[in-house]
Each structure stands twice: as structure tokens, then as C-alpha cells.
Amino acid sequence: MLVARTAKVAVNSMPELAIFRHFSPALQNALESVQCITYYPAGAVLFVESQPSRGVFFLSRGRIKLSVCARDGKTLILRVVQPGDALGVGAAVSGRTYEATAETLEPCEISFIRPSDLLRLMSLYNEFAMRMAEYLSQEYNSTCRELRSLMLSESASERLARLLVGWLDTNGDTKHRGQMKLTLTHEEIAQMIGTSRETVTRLLTEFRKKHFVQRHGSTIVVCNRGALESLITA
Amino acid sequence: MLVARTAKVAVNSMPELAIFRHFSPALQNALESVQCITYYPAGAVLFVESQPSRGVFFLSRGRIKLSVCARDGKTLILRVVQPGDALGVGAAVSGRTYEATAETLEPCEISFIRPSDLLRLMSLYNEFAMRMAEYLSQEYNSTCRELRSLMLSESASERLARLLVGWLDTNGDTKHRGQMKLTLTHEEIAQMIGTSRETVTRLLTEFRKKHFVQRHGSTIVVCNRGALESLITA
DNA sequence: AGGCCATGGTGATCAAGGTCACACAGTAGT
DNA sequence: ACTACTGTGTGACCTTGATCACCATGGCCT
To answer: Which of A192, A208, A218, B77 could disulfide-link B191, Cβ–Cβ 3.0 to 4.6 Å?
Structure first.
């Protein structure tokens, strides 16, 4: 039912995708004709790891969790995809399987494009091929940074500090400085920084005791950003 | 002097780059006119992390170590680049800085292309843009796999087993099954699997005691591949 | 030969954090 | 109100692997 409600909000036109802007009118029309706008509820799985490419997803509203997992169920969250971003481009372009699993965290509005259409439009419109290449390189970049920050910091507290500071820059409340909504559970935070749920709980209480952060309900306030940053070495 | 020796071997023509094959003659000519074939000795640094893109490197001979490093000098080797592969495409396409440091492990023959030429040829020849996009997606894929295998395996022995098995598939001697040359030092192996040099030494001797592997000089023989694979869970 | 340096091998020590085991709070469903 | 479930908080314990310290080996240079 959340799907239906979301659908009513923006049913009339092509989603406002930053990635589609600056394209020539011809390409925009072509994209509009092949895309399929879909709505997903929270917790929906768009695709799973090692499944052959079913399509490319351009996210216009909502947030999506991108993760890989081990056989024993342990999970590592690669990143949380924000509106305007794309999913599954790599798998479609290289004709391989998805390298991660995508699951919606909230109700999402998504523009879906089949791999064959993506490749055809990339061949037809060079600007589109260039844009996708640029996108892929950004994705590669961010994965490298992820890898570095996860592997080259020896303590879990450093990784948590890095995560919090990173969130401040992207999700931070502009009005109330240092304030932001904690939208993930401790379990999910643990999966982002590669540690256990208990450790995240312990570290957050430790940070609170040291007055690095405060908590008001599900809102977290970073009082001492400098202290957090000083925990980061890499 | 190693540089000069290598140069004599293949000075006459364009390097045999798999990545360049299947291109139209026009594109091949264009590439030939903008590329610059260079030779590096072992231990040369092509570029360093966070330096603005100076160019793209297509490796035709030799091997290159791609790594990121922390402030305290700790290093993580992302991968060892093999002949036929490219370096720095992401940085050139997105106009960002290099995300890693590239250092030759052996004397190398490299075809160098400036970022501006790369972008120009990508705009001019759609097949080239498509090929670069495909390349980027493969690079992204392999980085994801790296991230997964590093983070989702709790023990260092598992990561080492995974590395050895992976090497068997790519570098394994086809004649003598299970046999391969160990070309990296324990220190470098440690940097590949995110552990300390001592741990690698200990694990290798443990594997030898359990008769998973044997050693003859710098050649390592995997006698019990199944046992190594059974250490891998993720 | 005699050093020198990079690499490999091994023991002792120790802290970080994974795991297990509960207790407790909030929220939804009936 | 009474469960039932999900998320959070905390103690006890114990394994893994980092680190330090030291020695052995085997080129390579002068």
C-alpha cells in the first residue's frame, strides 16, 4: 500500500534524475520511451548477488542498501544508494552477474531499463556511453575508498568515527549543526564497518560517555566532531 | 639497463594489446598515433594515490602492483595488474585523482595515453567508449570481489588460502599441476590479504606442516587444493 | 673475505573484539 | 492487557593476530 501512496505523488512525468539532465532532447526521449517507472515498498529486493543482470535501476526517490554476503550469512554493506544514483550499470555493461544485493530501505521510486536497451542507447548516443563510463568510474572510486577505509584502519572505533563524520557531510541537518537522524540499526551499522552488533553498541555508549555524541530518541548529535576526526588516522 | 634490453625485443610495432584488438582500423590508427610506448625498470612508480590524472597506461609486458596506503605507512595491495590490462582509466574518465599507487614489479612495457586524447577518442569512436565502459565495469567487479573476500572472511588463513587458490587459477603452471612461482615476498602477500608479515610466514609453515603445500626454492606446490578450498567459507 | 641489507622464521606477550548469554525497552498485533 | 518480536545494553570469556624482539639465511657489493 505504501507503493500506491508513493505512486500518486509523482505519476505524471519522468523522474527528476540528475543523471539524465544535460542530455540531448533526442536521448532524453529515447530514454523515456524505454524506461519503466516502478515503485517498491521498504524491504524489497531489487536483485541479488551473482544473479544474471536483469536490468539497470535509476533511483529517483528513496534509499537502497547495497550489500554482499558470505555463505554463513555474514553481510557487508557496500554503501547506501541515494536518489539520483544508478544501480547495476556494471553488470549490464559487462554482461556479467550482479556483484551485490540491492534492497530498499524505504519506499522507492525507480526508473528501470533493460540491459539490451541500455547497451543499444549507449551505442547509439555517444554522450550516454560517456556518461555511463563516468558513472562507472565514480562507482569504482568510491569502492576503492571504501576498501581503504575498511582495511587500513585497525580499530573498529576508527571505522565508526569515519562513518559518522561521513554521514555528517552527506546527511547532516543543515539547520542544527552536527545533528542527524540515525536511520540504520546498530546491526546495519555493524555491517557497514565490518564488525559485530555488540561492538557498535559499546562504541556508541563509549562515544556518549566521552561526550563526542549525544542521543535524543533516534536522532544523534555530534557534539565534538574534532574528537571523532582525531580517531581517524588513515 | 633492463629497460634497454626490453626495448630491443619489441621496438618495431604497436604492442600486442588484447584490449586494442577487435577495434576498427581507423580507431587502431588513431590510438597508435596518440600513444607513447615507454619502458620502465622494476620498482618504478607510474603514479601515486591522490595525484591528478596524468594519463592512462596500457600494460603490454610486465606486472604492476596497485596499492593504497594509510598515513602510518601501512599498505594494502588492491591487485597485481597483468599484461593486457589498463591503469588509470577511471581517473581519466571522471577527471579525478588516481585512487591508488602503481608501481612496477618487473621491467614493463607500457603504452601511455594522455587523458585528453583518451577522452577525445572515446567521444569520436563509440566502440572505444563502449570498450572503456566495459573495462571499468570489470575493474569495479574485481574490486567488489576483493572487498568481499577481504572483509567477509574472519581468519587470515582463509584469506591466504583464497589467495593461493586464486593464483593457481591464473598463474598456475599448466604442465605441473598445482605448481607455481611465488613472485611476491611474504611482506607483499601480507599486504594483499591485510595482515602482518609474521602471520603470513606462520601460516605458510603451518600449511607446509599439514601438507597442503610444499616448497622447492621459490616455487610453491599446492599438494592439497581441496584442503585449502575447505578453509574458504565466504 | 667481510659487510650489509632484504627476506624468512619463531617465541613471548597482550589487547581488541567476536561470541554467548541475558536483561530490558519499545512497538505492533490480537 | 498479553504476547511476540525487534532492537538495544552489558557482562564474562576466550581466540585471533598484531607487535616486539631476535636470529638465520642468502644474495650482492666493494
So the answer is: B77
Q: Which of B51, B56, B94, B159 to mutate to test the interface with A (most CBs of A within 10 A)?
A: B94
Distance, Å, B198 CA → C10 C1': 9
The nucleotide lying nearest B209 (C-alpha to C1') is C9
Cross-strand bridge partners of residue B57 = B87, B112
Expressed in angstroms, the distance from the first to the final Cα of chain A is 45
Q: How far apart are CA B95 and CA A137, in angstroms?
A: 10
Which nucleotide across the nucleic acid strands is nearest to A182, CA versus C1'? Answer: D7
Burial group, residue A71, by CB count within 10 angstroms (0-12, 13-18, 19+) = exposed
Distance CA A172, CA B45 (A): 39
pTM for the full model? 0.87
Question: Could you tell me the CA-to-CA distances from A157 to A154, A201, A231, B6 in Å, in that order?
Answer: 9, 11, 7, 49
Contacts of A92 (CB under 8 A, 6+ apart): A53, A55, A56, A115, A118, A119
Of the candidates A93, A145, A234, the beta carbon closest to that of B137 is on: A93
Is B133 close to A141, i.e. CB distance below 8 A? no
pLDDT in tens, chain B (234 residues): 333 333 333 444 555 666 777 899 999 999 999 999 999 999 999 999 999 999 999 999 999 999 998 877 789 999 999 999 999 999 999 999 999 999 999 999 999 999 999 999 999 999 999 999 999 999 999 999 999 988 888 899 999 999 999 998 887 666 666 778 888 999 999 999 999 999 999 999 999 999 999 888 778 889 889 999 999 876
- Those of residues 9-28 in B touching chain A at CB distance below 8 A are none
